[in-house]
Write a structure and sequence with these properties.
The protein has 321 residues and is α+β, with helices and mostly antiparallel strands. Helices cover 19% and strands 27% of the residues. The chain folds into three domains: 59 residues, Roll (Structural Genomics Hypothetical 15.5 Kd Protein In mrcA-pckA Intergenic Region, Chain A); 81 residues, Pseudouridine synthase (2-Layer Sandwich), CATH 3.30.2350.10; 151 residues, Pseudouridine synthase. Helix 1 crosses helix 2.
């Protein structure tokens, strides 16, 4: 696969990349930089049913790609680092990712990601390779902590990807925002796409991808609110963009809001993937996994003291934490 004429590597477009541009899909699926993906697409090395794809083509989930790509970076190397497992079965792992850790290899990150840590602790995942993203079913931003699903076989990966596509996996987050959110419950339904002025940002875009976020205020301290957030879709930066759009940027989010919110300062985005409910392929009943808040987030709540409205323990979600 190191030169033109080699056998192409085939891979399916995963459910959470449905409708994305071809160059972005190729980068994510094959674990290469966006620039390398664009070069491969532009040079005709990525095809669908024998026909070259264009970088701007929008690809549907399940579409089979065939790509001939260089492997200059070599196979992914294991990394001996701590791995927090919240759930384990024959088919599935649920990992509690710390803030600051990149999930997949990409530009500027190869062997220092969660994927490398996974293959150190679970060497069999290396066999799933880049086409199955070493078992990783979905993503979290680098500065978001919390729960991630990992499949332990191609069959389990396909099953969990289908659950994502059908929106049957329930993902619940806890967020601290720099506003008193009124009304206390609501839904943001607005399409999200790449910001044409700043390509590293996402924005509300009329021609973007459908996105829907539900929220509920759990507690408030003046102009700061603790929120429970549930996703119907999983677009890049979805919670950060949607909450910012209603005037409630996440505390610590330098991209979509201010890094300060009243008395709260923190060197990460105040967002935690706290609960996952899914169907383990090997079980008949649904499985729910909860991740405690990391210490740095607990400390900010302690510093805020008693809320003037609601309570940190108002929801079953937070009382579990």
């Amino acid at each position: 696969m190191s030169e033109v004429g080699a056998d192409p590597e085939r891979a399916a477009v995963p459910g959470d990349m449905d409708g994305m541009r071809a160059d972005r899909v190729v980068a994510g699926v094959y674990g290469i930089s966006r620039a390398a993906a664009r070069n491969a697409v532009d040079s005709g090395k990525v095809t669908i049913d024998g026909e070259p794809v264009a970088a701007k083509d929008k690809l549907a989930a399940g579409t089979i790609l065939a790509a001939v790509l260089p492997e200059a970076e070599g196979p992914l190397q294991p990394l001996d680092a701590r791995l927090e497992i919240r759930y384990e079965s024959a088919d599935v792992l649920v990992v509690d990712k710390p803030a600051g850790l990149v999930v997949h290899p990409g530009a500027g990150h190869r062997n220092d990601t969660l994927a490398s840590i996974l293959i150190h602790h679970y060497p069999a995942l290396a066999a799933l390779g880049e086409s199955h993203r070493w078992g990783l079913v979905h993503r979290l931003d680098r500065d978001t902590s919390g729960l991630l699903l990992v499949a332990r076989s191609p069959e389990a990966h396909a099953d969990l990807q289908q659950q994502l596509k059908e929106r049957s996996i329930q993902r619940t987050y806890v967020a601290l925002v720099g506003a008193r959110v009124e009304p206390a419950t609501g839904t943001v339904e607005a399409p999200i796409g790449r910001d044409p002025e700043q390509p590293t940002r996402m924005a509300l875009r009329q021609n973007g991808r459908f996105a829907r976020t539900h929220y509920r205020r759990l507690a408030a301290w003046g102009d700061i609110s603790l929120m429970e957030v549930k996703l119907d879709t999983g677009r890049t930066h979805q919670i950060r963009v949607h909450l910012s759009s209603i005037g409630a940027p996440l505390v610590g989010d330098k991209t979509y809001g201010a890094k300060r919110a009243g008395r709260v300062t923190i060197d990460r985005v105040w967002l935690h993937a706290a609960r996952l409910t899914f169907q383990d392929p090997s079980l008949t009943e649904t499985t729910t996994v909860v991740a405690p808040l990391p210490a740095e987030l607990v400390n900010t709540l302690d510093d805020l003291g008693e809320p003037d409205d609601g309570a940190v323990s108002d929801a079953g979600l937070v009382s579990d934490l």
